[in-house]
User: What shape does this take?
Amino acid sequence: MKSHNIVSLIRKKRDGESLDSDEMRFLIQLYSRDVMPDYQMSAFLMAAFLNGLNDDESASLTREMLHSGTVLDLSMVPGVKVDKHSTGGVGDKTSLILAPIVAACGVPVPMISGRGLGHSGGTLDKLESIPGFNVNLDLKRYVEVLKEHKLVLIGQTDEIAPADKRMYALRDVTATVESIPLIAGSIMSKKLAEGIDALVLDVKFGNGAFMKTREDALSLAQRLVVIGEEFGKRTVAYLTGMDQPLGNNIGNWLEVYESIECLNGGGPKDLLEVTHLLAGTMIYLGDEAGTVEEGIERSKAAVQDGSAMQKLRDIVAGQDGSTEYLDRPDDYPAASHSFEAAAGKDGYISAMNSYIIGMAGVELGAGRKSKEETIDPAAGIILEKKIGDPVKRGETIARCFTNKEVETDTVRQMLQDAVTVGSFRPDVPALITDTVTRDGVTPWS
Assistant: This one.
């Protein structure tokens, strides 16, 4: 590796110039080895935030973060390994449903997930609401479980993309999180390190998503697909709306409960539509279906014949969890306090602010205000109404559950403020808007 001057490279990026792959390698490797201090990396990140990174720079950044740690070789696991990643939202529990579906259809799913912070929930926290479920497997056990069950669900280990882990911590405290190329590099370095062959992406936009507009979500999706294909991984992204929560349940065990409903043949229509699309695409990319449409039908069949629900039981047991509440979910220890939020007038639910609803869940204990806080697995919200539903004054729009001493009037007011009641039935926001592949963007129909 050729030697460079760190300050000169920061200046180059500050002035809007591009770094070549060797220059990017120099920066990331020096930072990984603690030669480059945090304050210089912070300066580089701000320069990248302000001036952007082109496709080549994004690929170089991803490659260096990826190779800063262990890149798993899953060639000993038969089949095409496929994962799914969502950019996050409120009530988004699709991973809990689609992972066992896809594995039941014969496609190995090595899934490394994250925790929730702020208004958006995390898959790991939801899994840990299942008593005993161990998301902290070492990499040897990770491979063993995947070979046995065609599915494994863990958190990021210290060996996986450690440079990204350190850089993300810096971005979080230097106001450089909201950068499409930095987000793309962070996501893809972790996903590529899993040992996958293909990836399906759910890029959300709307008031409850990280990307507020379709345009920003489309830009991120295109960057993610370009990086995935650059690394030889078949990559498909969908843009999905987050102007209202996905499904009805928000909160860790409550979302597991709703996932169990879906795997047993029930569940909300919007959640099922997104889940079966993502699962069907994974089954197609895993060569277990000839088309996405055939993959969707196989996904639905795995629910109907019970094999997906059995796969959930298998993986919970395989990762040291108790299956007791999978078969008797109503026996799960209930929150000690519950209350309701009601509509203030007659009409139709015309809009929802998913961000505020998510933050109401945090107030109840379903999420963290800081990384140190403990999550209450039983806390959360069940929505009784969604956009387009009629409502009467005083009718319940949401039920709240908590084990904390909370200001119920405050949470109730948050939910009432988050739900707009109009005089006319509105159009329901589009759930899926676009497909992004290496061939371009196709509007969803």
About this structure: The chain has a mean pLDDT of 93. The first strand starts at residue 82 and ends at 86.
